[in-house]
């Protein structure tokens, strides 16, 4: 796709407004050809698994675990005053392996969550949001506007009833500004 097709993309718009634009994904840059179109979309810096060879890997796409990337995010905000940082998370992706769960704060039994995909997915989201809560406590995050958006409803495999808060036609989102 020619670069001019990407002129109105948000990263290009913000880059032209003086923001430094960064994209981060713990998987390979070749996934969805991001290594090719991210620069056209306006990302001045793109970080992928191959840029982070020493970081711990998780099961999803054999990518860098999200837990390893919070420090990358915080570091970039400490260096840049006007920053647009686009991070596609990875760890909470299906197949939700128990080996990638290090935070068992969410009590699936108490919440009556089905064992397997539903419980593991929600535990992975809990650990992500716990880590995000720690990140936004850092001084470099003061004033940062955060938007967390899902890209699709989590796929749930197996013969289990869907949890009442999972809806096939809706994508969850959260928006806040760090004080």
Count of individual helical segments:
4
List low-confidence stretches. none
Q: Using only CA atoms, what is the Rg?
A: 17 Å
Taken in chain order, the helices and strands follow as HEHEHEHEE
Amino-to-carboxy terminus distance:
40 Å
Helix content: 25-40%
Report the strand count.
Answer: 5
- The secondary-structure class comes to alpha/beta
What does this structure look like?
- With 179 residues, the chain is α/β, with parallel strands linked by helices.
- The protein contains 4 helices and 5 strands.
- Helix 2 links the parallel strand 1 and strand 2.
- Helix 3 (66-79) packs parallel to helix 4 (117-135).
- The model has no long low-confidence stretch (mean pLDDT 92).
Any chance you could write out the topology, listing elements then pairs?
Layout: H1 10-16, E1 20-25, H2 34-41, E2 45-47, H3 66-79, E3 83-88, H4 117-135, E4 145-149, E5 173-177
Helix pairs in contact: 3-4
Summarize the structure.
The chain is α/β, with parallel strands linked by helices and 179 residues long.
